[in-house]
Amino acid sequence: MKTADANSGNTPKLTEQQYFDERKLLLEARQRGYQRAEQIITGGSTGALVLSSTFLRNFGSEAGLLASEWLVSAWVLLLIALFLSLLLNYTSAKSFNVEILRMDARQHDEKLPANPAATFTQWCGPFAALLFVVGIAALACFAYENAPFQLQQQR
Fold first, then answer.
1. What pLDDT score does 64 carry?
2. At what angle do helices 116-145 and 69-107 cross, to 10 degrees?
């Protein structure tokens, strides 16, 4: 039997049970992918904030690095990405709860409840990833500006 990851256009129609089994596997894989992306944003933002603050504590006072626009921008972007990632974990779980309610309503021919958490999660996930990438880029600009070879040239 061919599965959903097969590239053939000649895949035979699945039975209802096979369809639901495949769909369940794909949904679980999608959820793991989203969770992993949120973990990367959360862990990466936290790590970048800790690393940059450690750098400042160790080298900032002697080089006068405390007032860098790149660093402040990076911290703001990374903190927002971290906040959104944490919020996305909550709204993602909320979205799945609403989808279960929608599935139950569909089975009983009832009115389907709205799922604003799904819309929020769909739009904010990529935005949090973008903020993370731009924050890391700003942190890289700060690091380049304050690299030892740059500091020696300024003296």
1. 56
2. 160
With residue 50 as reference, give the H or E element that holds it: helix 16-55
Closest CA to 112 of 101, 120, 122: 101
Reported as type and span, the H/E element at residue 116 is helix 116-145
Mean pLDDT on 40-62 = 75
Alpha-carbon gap, residue 34 to 89, rounded angstroms: 9
d(CA 51, CA 45): 10
129 Cβ partners below 8 Å, 6+ apart?
Answer: 37, 41, 81
Q: Measure the CA dihedral 35/36/42/44, to 10°.
A: -170
Q: At what angle do helices 69-107 and 16-55 cross, to 10 degrees?
A: 160
How far apart, in whole angstroms, are the C-alpha atoms of residue 14 and residue 24? 14
This prediction has a pTM of 0.65
